[in-house]
């Protein structure tokens, strides 16, 4: 197994006579490549073992509960857990990024809100709330022309849904 393979690379490093050999090994490409690929495979195995869509949905539900109760730091923790538990489902992740962006906005951590809004758009480019969250974050950062672009992109996706948000954003500029 990967867990058992990694110590093989460092077997000599525990004794003083092998210390020099262990230090020398770190100079050889074959040794390093083998060790690094083993570490990478082990890390990926741990990541894959952590993925569980059911637990991700439960974490998202707990995050929604915290959001409704206005306990935003706890909501952010739960949304982060949901993302870690189900990172490969773009539709799921886009909704969670959107929710976490809203939490960051409520906490006035605008750069984090913008980053999550952009991650939301990247995960699902047709999910309109990502553009709206991005526009609102950009307005809060006094980057009105970029916000207008984000709202315009939202309008292109759904003119009826986004119009209220767009107009509200433009009114705030004045």
Short description:
The protein is mainly alpha-helical and 174 residues long.
Structural summary, described in words:
This protein is mostly helical. It is built from 10 helices and no strands. The radius of gyration is 23 Å and the shape is globular.
The amount of beta strand, in percent, is: under 5%
Q: Pairing-aware structural class of the strands and helices? A: mainly alpha
Assign a percent range to the helix content. Answer: over 70%
Strand count, sense and barrel status of the largest sheet are: none
Distance between the termini: 62 Å
Chain-averaged pLDDT:
84
β-strand number:
0
Give the C-alpha Rg.
23 Å
Q: So how many helices? A: 10
Can you write the helix and strand succession as a string?
HHHHHHHHHH
Shape: globular
Low-confidence stretches: 11-17, 169-174
What's the structural blueprint in terms of helices and strands?
Layout: H1 2-9, H2 16-25, H3 29-50, H4 53-68, H5 72-85, H6 90-106, H7 110-123, H8 128-140, H9 144-157, H10 159-173
Features:
174 residues, mainly alpha
């Amino acid at each position: 197994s990967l867990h058992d393979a990694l110590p093989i690379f460092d077997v000599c490093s525990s004794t003083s006579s092998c210390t020099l050999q262990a230090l020398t090994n770190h100079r050889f490409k074959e040794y390093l490549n083998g060790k690094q690929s083993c570490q990478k495979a082990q890390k990926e195995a741990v990541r894959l073992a952590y993925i569980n869509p059911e637990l991700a949905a439960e974490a998202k539900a707990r995050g929604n509960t915290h959001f409704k109760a206005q306990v935003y730091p706890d909501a952010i923790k739960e949304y982060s857990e949901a993302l870690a538990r189900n990172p490969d489902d773009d539709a799921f992740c886009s909704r969670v990024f959107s929710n976490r962006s809203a939490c960051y906005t409520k906490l006035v951590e605008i750069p984090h809100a913008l980053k999550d809004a952009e991650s939301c758009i990247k995960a699902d480019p047709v999910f309109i709330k990502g553009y709206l969250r991005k526009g609102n974050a950009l307005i809060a950062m006094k980057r009105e022309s970029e916000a207008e672009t984000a709202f315009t992109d939202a309008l292109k996706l759904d003119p009826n849904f986004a119009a209220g948000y767009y107009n509200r954003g433009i009114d705030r500029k004045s």
